[in-house]
Amino acid sequence: MGEVQDEKSIIQAIDKALSHKLDPNILMVVLPTRLKNSYAKFKKYTLAIQPDSQVLTQFVLESTLQRKSGLQTVYTKLLLQMAAKRGNILWATTFD
Prior knowledge:
single chain, alpha+beta
């Protein structure tokens, strides 16, 4: 959706994404690293504006995605977190 620079523009981008006609069920938001202390504010906002929504949110810091090493691990963890939020069982042990 383009680069956003401040809290207000991030909230506007979240609103725009959630009101999009494609009816998303997962919303990933990449936060600028300098706004990492605002994570809780954004998460609470998404929960407050759509309390009964099926839209799940995943937030990640820009700096996390810009790491020089270990990106495959980061991407794998993000994918697993989103799958778990959709209700998928990531793994299960069996007892015989």
